[in-house]
Structure prediction request, 263 residues.
Amino acid sequence: MKHKNHNYFNQIDNESKAYFLGLLFADGYVSRKTNQIQLFLLKEDLEIIKEFKKQIKYSGKITLRKNLYGISPSSPIIKNDLINLGCVPNKSKIIKFPKLEKNFHIPFIRGYFDGDGTLSLYKNKDLKCNFTCASIEFIEEIKNLLLKYNIQSSICSYTTYYRLFISGNNNSLNFLNLIYNNSNLFLARKKEKYFRCKNIIENNIKRKPHRRKIIQFNKENIFIKEYNSAVEAERCLDIRYQNIRSCCEGKQKTAGGYVWKWK
Prediction:
């Protein structure tokens, strides 16, 4: 590899290495027959390719392949270090979460999410995030790790891959806050989309009317708590205020597993 830092992945001891390891887990390629590794991203993500090139001190050219920009350094040391970390050839169905120090878990997840994750705001109301992976073990490890940060998720199985879904505005924003706040490396387009979605959600909350007090009961009609409004209950419980109001108005029996009544 031309003018390179062969030992870059020898030890994951900073945010940058953890982030790029996650990105390589998602979008990287490790050759089985040669010492080549590759990382190619969309044109709008070119700055991250430039940063990776800088980090590993690669003096080769950035190349264009079918609207993707990337680099293809060759180094037996980097290849072996990546393999030891779990980024192996033909990795899709067999990757496992790498053994990293706890403070590098989130940068690694951010890198993987930037590569194989999506966030969407449906009808300007419902924010959802998801990861895609062909390895059930890897996706379950992410699910368990996020649970330690009180982020709920669910796994769905498809024909050739799995998806980890993070739903609910508060839950999704907590996840995005976790991976993007105070971060130094990220795909700009995804972080910007996160900020746009956050602003839309916050503005929607500000515009919501209906400040009538409501009371929360369990299904056995036992009192739980009183709220100043359905909006306040939504903020606390991540249950859509429209559903809470519908319950109060007798249009549905429960909302979020609870019975709701006007005070």
User: Anything to note?
Assistant: Residues 112-207 form a domain with the Endonuclease I-creI fold (CATH 3.10.28.10). The chain has a mean pLDDT of 92. Residues 57 and 75 are 12 Å apart (CA to CA).
